[in-house]
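Progress narrative, work stream C.
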Amino acid sequence: MNDIDAPGRLPPPRNELLWMLWAVVAAFGTYFCMYAFRKPFTAATYSDAMLGGVAFKTVLVTSQVAGYMVSKFLGIKVISEMPPQRRAVGILALIGWAELALVFFGLTPRPWNAVWLFANGLSLGMVFGLVLGFLEGRRVTEVLTAGLCCSFILADGVTKSVGTWLLDRGVPEDWMPSVAGAVFLAPVVAFVAMLSCVPVPSSDDRAARSERSPLLRSERWALYGRYALGLTPLVVLYLLITILRSIRADFAPELWRGLGSAAQPETFTQSEMFVALGVCVVNGALVCVRDSRRAFFGSLGVCGLGLTLMAAALLGWQRGLLASFPFMVLIGLGLYLPYVAFHTTVFERFLAMTRDRGNIGFLMYVADAVGYLGYVAVMLSRNFGSKPGDFVPFFLGSGWVVTGLSVLCLASGWRYFAARIPAPQVALAPEAAT
């Protein structure tokens, strides 16, 4: 493969800093805009509707997440086999379908409109993998993907703020999601156009991080099977973090109220700005570690740091040492540090360390599929809306369970890879040996 073999992609420019900034802006903007088609509806409460004794918002969140989960399972095949030249068109097609589903959500009466959020989630679940494909396998992948991940941390809060702002101006709850999406249609087209111009990895990139290529079914599971005893506990860790992170994101208004602080439109944005800054600085810094084995274990150390912050946040709140805002910021940092580490470094440096043929999309979508399957199971087994007063205790209890189990999974994965891929021995000079 040469550096200009991908149709529509540019050869590496001489000014690497320029194209790196271009790629960060393009990836950040694309995924930030995607969130405007996914998350604004969670700013509404839908408190005047129930379905079978279940709060209608719980039904809507479950419907969308179920579609998102199915999309992740489909993405294991689609993303890992996707030719590079089809990614940009695929992103626009998926987002266009998502907006159309939101329009039908507004047109269809309750509770039947919930099915359109399933269709919305089904289309959006593969966008991340398509964007990630433009960024992986480079010497600066951690910086690029940290910028990408910063988008979904910030967008989660900003798009809720947009949704709340629209509701405050009289837009009906059922039409607010499509109106919010329409605001971002033109920007997302512009950012995807930028993304399509990101150059392919250079020969130096491939030498440093290994070449990334599509994988057939047999190749995908052969790769996972070789390291299953180490990858599986890490996937379970990601599952646990995904469940708690998703609860915090999808039920943020209810959680803020339960903590004693009714969230204003700007509250979501302000809290997530602090989270995004801390998470992106820590995870992006791993690009400075050139040795892929050290960077891989460094990313597992970042996961451990996140779990420590989670425990500190939970303990601080329960002992009355933290107010609601610092608690939400600290618990957000604790959740997003490991969550983003998987997106930026764990799988990227795993492939670079082992030099196995593959791509991040396959590994990321295995983890995401399992993670969202777990979240759907939680949503189906717990009626968040029936007892609002019990929500915060449930979240705190779940936080302790997630933290404890995650520590065990992290220790198991660390031990496996430390034994399977030991550190290279440094040969002593003859005079030192004597």
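Work stream C, second folded protein:
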Amino acid sequence: MWDTAPASPMKKIPCLALLWLAFVASAYGQKFEISPYYGWVRMSKDALGSVSPSNPQDKDTTFHNGHSYGARLTLNTKGYYGHELTYSETFTTLSTGTQADSTSPKLTYQDKLKLRQVTYNFLIYFMPRGERWRPFITGGVEGVYAPNPNISAWTGSTSRNYGLNYGGGLKIRLFPHALARVDVRDSRNGKPYGLSGAQDAPPPSGFLRQIEASAGFAIGF
């Protein structure tokens, strides 16, 4: 005999939830995007200060160009706008020069660092959602964590700095739920570490500039 008893309400709930998710995904296709990427980073040579006990100079400490990895989570509206959260890690090298006394040569030390960055951006598209080509411009706010380098003469401290970024990019739909994208972001954040400046001069102030060009792919749903 076949069991003709009706399914219990508790068994119906998962099925209804799956049907609802399928309906939302089909009705709002490409509303959400997850985008891993790889980037090339140009770090400005802005002066960060000095750890030198003798003859300190503002430009004793600087960053070098590097590369980055990251992922973006995007919420697209029905028309021309979007909201995006990004987490990235920038791999760079820090150089610092130090001089023990006025008669000693200045020695340069280097160490590789990983800067961690979290960003919120607002996107403005030139084409509505669903189009194959979607160029866009963007602006946002961000925070950067800078760890200490493994340098014996180092006297700075880890820091969290905040700033702004702006840029643009292009998304190209390859398949119904897959996109390729390229981005360029110009960032300005507070200078890290709080190092001292040249003798009898205030510590270096202002912003550290970073330009990132990146390419990756996105999964939309």
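Confidence is low (pLDDT under 50) at residues 1-5, 20-29. No further action is required on this item.
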